[in-house]
Write a structure and sequence with these properties.
By secondary structure, this protein is α+β, with helices and mostly antiparallel strands. Helix content is 28%, strand content 25%. The strands form four sheets. It has a five-stranded antiparallel sheet with strand order 8-7-9-14-15, sandwiched between helices. Strands 1, 2, 4 and 5 form a four-stranded antiparallel sheet that branches.
Length: 250
């Protein structure tokens, strides 16, 4: 495993890439409403990314056909935007997006309610988001990568939710996916030591029901095997000499 440590100059480029992505996510959140399609969201997201002088890094990545992954209700990740998928009051939607700024990638995901949603859905979204923050309490130089994984698992398991095991977080930099892989569930091994200059995409994916997932025939869309709701929360972070820096927060 070759984990790339970023130089001071590279970190500045990562910061700017992530700052711009945070703007995109904020504008998408404000645009979501019942009656719009997931295709509308993707079109808006791509327009925003390009307007900021950047390139959407998901578009055509390994054949993915869009700029924003739009995953609704029981879709976990990698939902493909469609003019046929109209958002309804009470839906939840996970938006996973990234961009390239001067050769450096950013990656972040958020799950939003569409209009008024159930208390159960609100809790799932809240727990998923908080699990990220519980995880990165352990994202400190001198600790180990799987301290993050174990902290996420320890928090989520108290709610009886399923933590997706087939998909994990990752390193990020001049490539969208770099070493290391970052599981969101407990590990026996400690994993690599964390050192300043690591840039990581930490992204809990949490199901209201079981952890099991399936892939649809499009080979992209991942859904919960039991049809339960799923939420996703991701930020690109920087390991520093002290607290981790969350680069993609607005």
């Amino acid at each position: 495993m070759a984990i790339r440590i970023k130089s001071a100059g590279e970190i500045e480029l990562m910061r700017e890439s992530c700052r711009l992505l945070a703007i995109v996510h904020k504008e998408l959140e404000e645009a979501i409403r019942p009656g719009m399609t997931t295709w509308d969201i993707d079109a808006l997201g791509e327009k925003l990314i390009r307007k900021l002088g950047c390139v959407p890094n998901f578009k055509n990545y390994q054949g993915y056909p869009a700029s924003i992954c739009t995953s609704v209700n029981n879709q976990v990740v990698h939902g493909i935007p469609s003019k046929e998928r109209v958002l309804q009051e009470g839906d939840i939607i996970s938006l996973d997006a990234g961009l390239i700024y001067r050769g450096y990638h950013s990656d972040a995901a958020r799950t939003h309610g569409v209009g008024k949603i159930s208390a159960e859905a609100e809790q799932l979204i809240s727990v998923t988001r908080q699990s990220f923050f519980e995880g990165i309490k352990k994202a400190r130089a001198g600790g180990h990568l799987h301290d993050i994984s174990n902290a996420i698992d320890s928090y989520v398991s108290g709610f009886g939710y399923g933590i997706v095991r087939d998909l994990v977080g990752h390193g990020i930099g001049t490539a969208l996916h770099e070493d290391p892989q970052i599981p969101n569930f407990a590990q026996k091994r400690r994993g690599p030591k964390l050192v300043p200059g690591m840039t990581l995409a930490v992204e809990p994916m949490i199901n209201m029901g079981r952890a099991d997932v399936e892939w649809l025939d499009d080979d992209w869309t991942v859904v919960t095997a039991d049809g339960s709701l799923s939420a996703h929360y991701e930020n690109t972070i920087l390991i520093t000499d002290g607290e981790p820096e969350i680069l993609t927060l607005y």
